[in-house]
Amino acid sequence: MAPRKLLLGVALMALSVLLSIATLGVWLGNLEANPTAAWLVFTLGFALSAAAAIVGIWNIMAFFRDKEE
Length: 69
Hints:
- The protein is mainly alpha-helical.
- It has helices spanning 2-30, 35-68.
- Helix 1 runs antiparallel to helix 2.
- The radius of gyration is 16 Å and the shape is rod-shaped.
- The mean pLDDT is 93.
């Protein structure tokens, strides 16, 4: 079970980075044409990115905490 937490944590961190890059791309692409939608994408994209990063770090920390016990 413990290696699964590490893999999940690393995968979520990678997803967070990719989601951040995609969010910036979509945000910059829509900023001139539709600023309201662009800022909505920016807000939602980075909220999801932050959530994925937090859960990823939590899983990585849980892996090392379980390893110490």
